[in-house]
């Protein structure tokens, strides 16, 4: 998946140039897209206003300007509702309590390595999807590869692949096909293969938009063009309807 439209967009807020450059290099190598780099709260707010596709922020607590990272985080919570990861080398009690008050979704203590960056991003996305901010700044977190592979956040699915996340807009998904422990998501122009069972994907899909038609297929009901016999038409694709799902599928046609 090389299309940047399907990469997670990250804004880095860090006023130490060399550290910011290091973070950006790490994120780029992990196949994330850098949506911008800000050195102050004012710069970050301008980038956020100009770029509504930002998915996540890496936010240093100590930055130059009139507002520090914690005050910027309050604005992010109130105005943008985005997950953010705090970067800090200062873990004293006062700073930790101030940081907790704005409900960060993950944190990284400087210095950090690639593994810690990957875990922090995963925990931030998982915690945001589950509305559970991070409260403990003193325990290094691990991740559960079996449960965190698929997340629904706002109008997208975030899918883990090769130790990073990609995102696919729900509206762009035509259908999903299962093949043993793999699932393939089809859009109009591309298809994306993930090492995750379809049941895990189905659990993250809004039922008002997606429906299982067969043990190996889930369709976006708004992208159905028609049907004939035991097949649905979605663009050039023919999707089978099994006996066990036929009744539910044809109930749908009474409402669309």
Report on the structure:
The protein has helices spanning 17-29, 41-50, 69-80, 93-100, 114-129, 198-203, 243-252; strands at 9-13, 33-38, 56-60, 84-88, 106-109, 150-153, 156-161, 164-169, 175-179, 182-186, 191-194, 210-214, 217-220, 226-228, 231-234, 237-240. The protein has 256 residues and is of the alpha/beta class. The radius of gyration is 21 Å and the shape is elongated. The chain starts with 8 loop residues before the first strand and ends with a helix. The model has no long low-confidence stretch (mean pLDDT 90).
Question: Main attributes?
Answer:
256 residues; alpha/beta; five-stranded antiparallel β-sheet; 29% strand; elongated
